[in-house]
Amino acid sequence: MSRFEYAPAPESRAIVDIKSSYGLFVNGAFVEATDGKPFKTVSPASEEVLAEVSEAGPADVDKAVRAARKAFEKVWGPMAGRDRAKYLFRIARLIQERARELAVLESLDNGKPIRESRDVDIPLVAAHFFYYAGWADKLEYAGAGEDPRPWGVAGQVIPWNFPLLMLAWKIAPALAAGNTVVLKPAETTPLTALAFAEICQQADLPPGVVNIVTGAGRTGQALVEHPDVNKVAFTGSTAVGRAIAKSVAGTDKAVTLELGGKAANIVFEDAPIDQTIEGIVNGIFFNQGHVCCAGSRLLVQESVYDEVLGRLKRRMETLRVGDPLDKNTDIGAINSAAQLARIRELAQIGEDEGSERWSPECELPAQGYWFPPTVFTGVSQAHRIAREEIFGPVLSVLTFRTPAEAVEKANNTPFGLSAGIWTEKGSRILWMANQLRAGVVWANTFNRFDPTSPFGGYKESGYGREGGRHGLEAYLAH
Amino acid sequence: MPTKDSGRLEVRKTYKLYVGGAFPRSESGRSYVVNNAKGKFLANASQASRKDARDAVVAARKAFGGWSAKTAYNRGQILYRIAEVMEGRHEQFSAEVAASEGLSIAKARGVVDASIDRWVWYAGWADKIAQVVGSSNPVAGPYFDFSLPEATGVVAVLAPQESSLLGLTSVIAPAIVSGNTVVAVSSFERPLPAVTLGEVMATSDLPGGVVNILTGSATEIGPWLASHLDVNAIDLAGIDDLDEARELEAAAAENLKRVRRPADEDWAESPGLSRLTQYLELKTVWHPIGV
């Protein structure tokens, strides 16, 4: 198939100034870690070392929690809601002012295409702070009673797939409600969280209100198990979420968990075909498939299977995989070597279990971590690629004949985060939306996010909601 | 215990489990002695086993689809019907509560009044909760976006040990009003009002399996319910021992159950919404707007 060639159109990285090393952000200042070793964060597109980052040990986490406690008791807790609101508005504006820099930094550290970090991640980050800023002086209307109180110190652990956006989902409602926070970014993507620490300084946010401790699982464990943390919020794998739920058992800690998913994206024979194909592509290849709510199980009505698959493959042939900073790139780099190994392993299992694997011809860069957009057909519900979260650009295709069968297959999973429905029939959309056991249902669209819109899962996809009034309620004691 | 002064020998009741709309004995064949507050024999109760708990979960799961799909109006009427039928058995409940909890008959009547009124209160919530906790979300784009609450699924309830009827009502009603189904373990020492409540439910148009009541030990059965992978939430109200509560919560983490931790609760107080909302999942639906 002939196609237009694109000239490279790279976004300049001159806009970011990455330091060679970073400390922890505790009590308003960058400090050296006392009991952990520094570690490196790399660009997954080139394996180039971007910076050295400090690993926070239990003693560092303790310092951060103490700073947060003090700030909660002395400054942030007693502060008038309207003033907390103004700080959050300031932060929202600073993010908008530095949006391009943050987008480039995010794409460098995470590997996601600049088109996504620039047009999706960072605008949503600013929008979240702007939205929750307005709640800070209106808490009595949030549904947690007439005299709502914050929990106190929130310990927050976030993943690497949307580093700054997940930070915003966690920090904005926590601060609006009057909590102070200690947040641990993922070990492979700490840089935008550290840039956010600078933004807190530029906003003159009182010391200790936001503390950022970098590190891996050990640091996160020290944080969620710290006895002086009142509220735990985690986004990440179901396995780690389960461990956190176990570790807080018997405590007074409030917990919200946003975990894995294996969303069904369901295509009926009357679906608007062009939009549907775009929706399928967006559902699974957005952010390299590193999305907990990704539409990773495509359920196609048998009567349109051939047409949908044919068009999907044609569309996949036009996807451009490569340099995250190139504005033409559709699919960037896999975030880490470990994640790439996991995707490869599950894809191999898919083949071994008898599914048929297909990827468009595409040249992958020699350096860095890459995986081509991939579709598996002939997948049965028992196959591991239909049951386990792959967290990569890998789509498993199953078929169905009746709406009831589609519901049965869609709900046949321990997860329950999201689902998609494609049909022109309004009554069927509403019936399906009713039947699907998932926290977010996208009908004739997919992977939409908004700060006013609650997000979170059923069953083993976790509990609690982020976004909207419900997301605020999660940070208020009641 | 209903006694008669007429000299007629009374017909006593056999107290059994309530599972799937039927009243079986424990499959284990076990029963245990239930005494009144002064230590005098009242009855033998079935002592539910692990197998009974699993059967009850199967019944609750089977009932979930139909119960949660009923209109909220219909569910509200059925909860109200429970109150109506309880009212007709007021004397029986009062006698059982008085004997079990060691209350004067006057105080026991007050507890039964409060229990019936609580069913009425929750009945009214069935078709209102979605408007209170749901929302329309003004997203920044051409999409219609709304959030509505749905039932979590099968809820295991370890009912309060002291408050044998009002406490039990206060933990079952908030779960079923929104469409959840329940497996409840009654107070161990005061199980008789729970069995009678099951008999009320069986005659109140409540579909079999929506509420299943096991008499027996929460300490024995609790761990099997907490670790059961087809249970979606658990209420630890009846667990007084903190270590036991911690272990049950840890076991419940295996499939990320929603856990209601035990707390000092005054069941006579107005319950508020937190228990009702604990067993709700919020679903957000998006659709594009266009011509």
UniProtKB/TrEMBL annotation, chain A:
<dbReference type="InterPro" id="IPR016161">
    <property type="entry name" value="Ald_DH/histidinol_DH"/>
</dbReference>
<protein>
    <submittedName>
        <fullName>Acyl-CoA reductase-like NAD-dependent aldehyde dehydrogenase</fullName>
    </submittedName>
</protein>
<dbReference type="InterPro" id="IPR015590">
    <property type="entry name" value="Aldehyde_DH_dom"/>
</dbReference>
<feature type="domain" description="Aldehyde dehydrogenase">
    <location>
        <begin position="30"/>
        <end position="476"/>
    </location>
</feature>
<dbReference type="InterPro" id="IPR029510">
    <property type="entry name" value="Ald_DH_CS_GLU"/>
</dbReference>
<dbReference type="GO" id="GO:0016620">
    <property type="term" value="F:oxidoreductase activity, acting on the aldehyde or oxo group of donors, NAD or NADP as acceptor"/>
</dbReference>
<keyword id="KW-0560">Oxidoreductase</keyword>
<dbReference type="Pfam" id="PF00171">
    <property type="entry name" value="Aldedh"/>
</dbReference>
<dbReference type="InterPro" id="IPR016162">
    <property type="entry name" value="Ald_DH_N"/>
</dbReference>
<dbReference type="InterPro" id="IPR016163">
    <property type="entry name" value="Ald_DH_C"/>
</dbReference>
<feature type="active site">
    <location>
        <position position="258"/>
    </location>
</feature>
<comment type="similarity">
    <text>Belongs to the aldehyde dehydrogenase family.</text>
</comment>
Automatic annotation (TrEMBL), chain B:
<dbReference type="InterPro" id="IPR016162">
    <property type="entry name" value="Ald_DH_N"/>
</dbReference>
<dbReference type="InterPro" id="IPR016161">
    <property type="entry name" value="Ald_DH/histidinol_DH"/>
</dbReference>
<dbReference type="GO" id="GO:0016491">
    <property type="term" value="F:oxidoreductase activity"/>
</dbReference>
<keyword id="KW-0560">Oxidoreductase</keyword>
<protein>
    <submittedName>
        <fullName>Acyl-CoA reductase-like NAD-dependent aldehyde dehydrogenase</fullName>
    </submittedName>
</protein>
<dbReference type="Pfam" id="PF00171">
    <property type="entry name" value="Aldedh"/>
</dbReference>
<feature type="domain" description="Aldehyde dehydrogenase">
    <location>
        <begin position="27"/>
        <end position="259"/>
    </location>
</feature>
<dbReference type="InterPro" id="IPR015590">
    <property type="entry name" value="Aldehyde_DH_dom"/>
</dbReference>
